[in-house]
Design a protein that fits this description.
Oligomer: single chain
Order of helices and strands: HHEHHHEEHH
Number of strands: 3
Distance between the termini: 56 Å
Number of helices: 7
């Protein structure tokens, strides 16, 4: 219990602010709402930066890690596209491209946050992980796959928009 409290107390305030924003996005995604392809690129961008920051500036094996991240992100993109294709529906409402409410985007948002948080806590607790090939690769597989889910969702949104508008 003391370990958990130390982790919670040691988490910077900005991380809790990000979590609050992500929870609000997750709740919003569960309701029908207008959707912008451009705005839907924001989440993947945030998580890409968050994931790659460690790979480029902290890992002992940056080249292997980056290759693993890119391959995993590509796989996650395919999985995300399929997941969103099966679970999300879109329509035009009064001339506005609208996504029907679904829990899937919210789950993807929260899973991404939890994965990044746990990975970063592990590195904060044991700095040697940054220099360990197996951890670098594991981090990049998990981060790449989860960020790919976002990218796949964005590509699916763009494809649906194009199909509905044309």
């Amino acid at each position: 219990m003391n370990f958990l409290m130390a982790i919670i107390k040691g988490t910077p305030v900005y991380v809790w602010v990000i979590l609050a924003l992500l929870i609000s996005r997750a709740i919003a995604a569960s309701k029908d709402s207008p959707v912008s392809v451009r705005k839907s690129m924001l989440m993947p961008a945030i998580f890409i930066v968050w994931g790659l920051e460690k790979v480029i500036d902290g890992f002992g094996f940056p080249a292997q890690s980056l290759i693993t991240y890119v391959i995993s992100a590509a796989a996650g993109t395919g999985l995300g596209y399929l997941l969103y294709s099966k679970t999300l529906k879109f329509e035009m409402r009064e001339g506005v491209f609208t996504r029907l409410g679904s829990p899937v985007p919210g789950v993807v948002i929260i899973v991404n946050f939890v994965v990044k948080y746990v990975e970063n806590v592990a590195m904060a607790v044991d700095k040697q992980l940054l220099l360990t090939l197996w951890y670098n690769i594991t981090y990049c597989v998990i981060s790449g796959l989860t960020v790919g889910l976002f990218i796949g969702g964005t590509l699916n949104t763009a494809a649906n928009r194009k199909q509905i508008i044309n």
